[in-house]
């Protein structure tokens, strides 16, 4: 009999292209999504003097205690990256690797995955309202909005109605079954019918788009002139937000039409060397199928003053009910 499969090791996504894009690496970097620490380690190996590792999940630091705890080049901060400029100033680089870690996804008790039955939780920070709270307490119309806007799920109304009818919904398996009941069976090669609904709830529970918009602005405030901002995204909405932020803050916004009033000229806060996003190479795709939809964008800070930007201008889906 073949040996039981070992848990899939975490392979930091796009790590080689990222290090190549930001090299030479030196000074102080902030890793806003510490996770399993893969980016932090790679930055130190590439020449960073110090890395401030930020994560909202206390478990990330428990898991890293034995290798990161005794290393004085690493400072660990439990917090959100939307506030990263409160943890560091005048730094040489910021990296953000968005989404959940493989560790969070693989632990059934964290409730992120429809593949593993567990409590319907999905909170990266392990505090605040959970996905079960959302499913059991939100208005049906708000649930439908979340599933449509954050999951790009066309059957959102049907699914929201079925969730309300099934209340209380308390486990991942139960939710997956409710969603499956609303959709045709997946054809070979298609994703599981619950994929989009789970993604939507996770984004809502963790305010992921608000975090991204605020995190980009916080990075602009924290970076020194010449400092680099590298962001790895996993789906089209995230990538669109980063692309628009970089375009707007590097002065690369064309007027929509020539009769429109001139858009206000702001001094560019970033310089972009490569407009096209960087994706995985063939070798990474073969080794790590999870890298399939990953995209990396890098921008270099100028000495222009930092400025806020309206998150709505980044193409962030906005729910009618507010957030
Ligand atoms: C994809 S993993 C990062 C993996 C990491 N680059 C590595 O190599 O191990 C994302 C991590 O970011 C954390 N995270 C997501 N959003 C966050 C936020 N807004 N603030 C702080 N941490 C966040 C998650 O808890 C998770 O641990």
Walk me through this protein's architecture.
This protein is α/β, with parallel strands linked by helices. The protein folds into two domains: 15-102 and 208-314, Vaccinia Virus protein VP39 (Rossmann fold), CATH 3.40.50; 126-205, Putative methyltransferase TM0872, insert domain (DNA polymerase, domain 1), CATH 1.10.150.170. The chain has twelve helices and seven strands. Helix 6 crosses helix 7 (156-166) and helix 10 (208-222) packs parallel to helix 11 (236-249). 43% of the residues are buried. It binds S-adenosylmethionine (SAM).
Briefly summarize what is shown:
It is built from 12 helices and 7 strands.
Distinct helical segment count? 12
Encode the helix/strand succession as letters.
Answer: HEHEHEEHHHHHHHEHEHE
- State the name of the first-level CATH class of the largest domain: Alpha Beta
Q: How is the largest sheet built, in terms of strand order?
A: 3-2-1-4-5-7-6
Oligomer: single chain
**Ends distance:** 52 Å
Bound molecule kinds, no repeats: S-adenosylmethionine
Helical percent range? 25-40%
Poorly predicted spans: 1-8
CATH topology heading of the largest domain: Rossmann fold
Going by CATH, what is the homologous superfamily of the largest domain? Vaccinia Virus protein VP39
Counting structural domains, the number is 2
Class from secondary-structure proportions? alpha/beta
The biggest sheet, with number of strands, parallel, antiparallel or mixed sense and barrel status, is: 7 strands, mixed
Shape: globular
């Amino acid at each position: 009999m073949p040996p039981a499969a070992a848990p899939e090791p975490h392979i930091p996504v796009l790590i080689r292209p990222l290090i190549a894009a930001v090299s030479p690496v030196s000074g102080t970097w902030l890793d806003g999504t510490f996770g399993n620490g893969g980016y932090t380690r790679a930055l130190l190996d590439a020449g960073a003097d110090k890395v401030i590792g930020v994560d909202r999940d206390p478990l990330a630091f428990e898991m890293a205690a034995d290798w990161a705890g005794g290393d004085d080049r690493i400072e660990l901060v439990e917090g959100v990256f939307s506030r990263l400029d409160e943890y560091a100033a005048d730094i040489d680089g910021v990296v953000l690797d968005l989404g959940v870690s493989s560790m969070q996804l693989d632990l059934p008790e964290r409730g992120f995955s429809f593949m593993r039955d567990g409590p319907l939780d999905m909170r990266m920070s392990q505090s605040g309202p959970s996905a079960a709270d959302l499913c059991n307490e939100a208005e049906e119309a708000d649930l439908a909005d979340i599933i449509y806007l954050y999951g790009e799920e066309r059957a959102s109304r049907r699914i929201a109605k079925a969730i309300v009818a099934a209340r209380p919904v308390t486990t991942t398996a139960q939710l997956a079954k409710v969603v499956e009941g609303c959709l045709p069976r997946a054809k070979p090669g298609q994703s599981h019918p619950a994929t989009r609904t789970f993604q939507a709830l996770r984004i809502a529970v963790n305010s992921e788009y608000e975090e991204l918009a605020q995190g980009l602005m916080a990075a602009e405030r924290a970076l020194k002139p010449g400092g680099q901002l590298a962001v790895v995204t996993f789906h089209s909405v995230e990538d669109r937000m980063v692309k628009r932020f970089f375009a707007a803050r590097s002065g690369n916004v064309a007027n929509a039409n020539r009769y429109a009033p001139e858009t206000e000229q702001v001094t560019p806060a970033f310089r972009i060397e490569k407009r096209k996003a960087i994706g995985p190479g063939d070798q990474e795709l073969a080794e790590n199928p999870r890298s399939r939809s990953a995209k990396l964008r890098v921008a270099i800070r100028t000495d222009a003053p930092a400025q806020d930007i309206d998150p709505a201008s980044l193409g962030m889906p906005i729910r009618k009910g507010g957030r």
